[in-house]
TrEMBL record:
Residues 24-156 form the DUF218 domain. This is YdcF family protein. It comes from Acetivibrio mesophilus. It holds the Pfam family DUF218. It comes from the Bacteria. PANTHER family: DUF218 DOMAIN-CONTAINING PROTEIN, INNER MEMBRANE PROTEIN, PROBABLE PERMEASE. The lineage of its organism: Bacteria, Bacillati, Bacillota, Clostridia, Eubacteriales. One of its GO terms (cellular component) is plasma membrane.
Length: 215
């Protein structure tokens, strides 16, 4: 029970809880989690922006489980949901969040597309780190972040079988929290205050052995 409480504390902190507004473009960051593609398509179909960009080549996990890039796989999901191909752009070379941002920025600049306000879609536990990275690497743009709309129990239940386990996701969450603390000094993202309760929960999870994705 203590573990569930600690994970919930991290989960709540890692969410930004942004309210979506009309924007210039939706940027969907690739990963192993196809629910992110579904959320990106939902946001487009709800009319929040006229263009959607899928970003992602092969990541640490997907290079072992997929034979197409993350961006291509996500775009196919969106097209099957009714997003017209003419309103989709693909960036399929990036392999981490920093590259996602910089390569999409280059693509937007080359196409001379207005991008004063973005909606960025990622995994739920990556909302805060995504926001912090965008504000560092693309500071002139207003950023709203969103993710699949579900609680921690429902989200983790999606990893009950397959290549990626529930414990693996918890390890990644713990690693992401550590990166929120360390990455500003490396110039990768802007500073984010971490409440003591959140950091204490992180330390306890590390003590429990969730260390596989620590820097």
């Amino acid at each position: 029970m203590e573990k569930e409480k600690l994970i919930q504390i991290l989960w709540d902190y890692l969410h930004m809880n942004h309210r979506l507004e009309k924007s210039d473009c939706i940027v969907v960051l690739g990963s192993h989690d196809t629910r992110v593609a579904v959320r990106g398509a939902e946001v487009f179909l709800e009319g929040f922006a006229p263009l959607i960009v899928f970003s992602g080549g092969y990541g640490k996990l997907t290079k072992h489980i997929w034979n197409s890039t993350e961006a291509e796989k996500f775009a196919r999901i969106a097209i099957n949901m009714g997003v017209p191909e003419d309103f989709i752009l693909i960036e399929d070379k990036s392999s981490n969040t920093g590259e996602n941002i910089l390569f999409v920025k280059d693509l937007i600049d080359i196409r001379q597309i207005k991008a004063e306000k973005l909606i960025v879609v990622n995994k739920p536990y990556m909302e805060r780190r995504t926001y912090a990275a965008f504000k560092k690497l693309w500071p002139e743009t207003e950023v709203l972040v969103t993710s699949p709309q579900m609680g921690i129990k429902e989200y983790l239940a999606g990893y009950g079988s397959g290549e990626i386990t529930e414990d693996e996701v918890i390890n990644v969450m713990v690693g992401d929290l550590q990166r929120i603390k360390l990455y500003p000094e490396k110039g990768f993202q802007v500073h984010q205050d971490i409440p003591k309760e959140v950091w204490d929960a992180y330390l306890k999870l590390v003590e429990m052995g969730y260390t596989k994705h620590l820097c």
